[in-house]
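Limitations

Structures in this collection are predictions, not experimental determinations, and the ligand pose is part of the prediction. Treat each record accordingly. The example that follows, with pyridoxal-5'-phosphate as the small molecule, is included so readers can see exactly what is and is not provided: the inputs are given verbatim, and the output is the predicted complex.
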Amino acid sequence: MIINLDANASYGLLPEVKERIALCESLYNPSSIHQNGQKARALLEDSRSTIADFIGLSSEQRLIFTSGASESNTQALFYPFWKEINNNSVANLIVSTIEHPSILEAAVKLSDLGIEVRYFNPFATDAIPEFFSLIDSNTKMVSIMMANNETGLILPVEDIFSRVKKYSNSIITHTDAVQAVGKIAFRADSLNADFISISAHKLGALSGTGALIVPKDFENRTLISGGPQESRWRAGTENVIGISSFAAAISCWKQNSLSWIGRMQNIKTELLHFIASSFPTININTTLQSLPNTINIEIPGRLADDLVVAFDLLGIAISSGSACASGKPLPSHVLLAMGKTPEQARSALRISFRADLSDTEIGMIKDAFLKLFN
Ligand code: PLP
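Predicted complex:
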């Protein structure tokens, strides 16, 4: 058994999700009119209601299934700009510098297509005033994540979006809520967000499934063209088994989220205390306002990618913040935005865990730390 300290990458299937998948018969096309199609449609719509209910969707919002949050993010970011692209327009988009690559890369694509992209750094001293100084009458969209996947930082999205909407109700707001759902208080109807992206595999369901929350009164503009599925917001036969697994995971979170959040918070406190008291040279990059299951640490003088291998050999899956480009590890853009040097960023590890991490596993993690860092 490998201990999962990389739950922000993938939570791993919940036992109830495995049961749901095992029970699934052949799932047919939910757009087919025959009985097989109707069964698939019923499961699909049932799943939609379960997820919508847990995330607090209002009657003015619609939940569209996608292939995952990368697609949801790309679709949301392109939404306001289809008519502006290559049109000599002066439209601009504002994103934070610490977004997931699916936002940052989509922003680069938009920039290549002539849209101005403005970046704001949430770690800057005057981050919020700086952010508001970027907005002008050409701003079409603002996209800010709810919680960062690398450091766990929670951003005050609800408050920022409320002020954006006061400035101009026509600016479209989007949040990537992938890491927030389940782990912090979350209601889709009170975020002041027009679009919200979520992902199934961060919650213990199958990967390859996600959703985009859209306002019902927005004109539908698709990223994927084809059939009329998902109220014409996303073409393609729905991934019914992935979606059903998503609903099964959500049902577990609905039943347990308070106790799971409490357990994650306790584990985090215990690990932070252990690291701080046993290894005074290790820096903790995670701030107070952060996800209950995420800790980012920096081990001066050690290369995080080597440490990932060392932990792996001890049966622990952990991750470094770096992305690998052509075999050369790049320092994390999130840690660089925090003001870390590339060398410091290359020595950072992310610890992210499930709520069911056992005390025995916590003991094994501490043993591994003592072995590797003493
Ligand atoms: N956004 C955040 C914050 C993430 O952590 C991830 C996954 O790592 C994604 C988006 C992409 O999600 P998916 O794997 O469903 O495309």
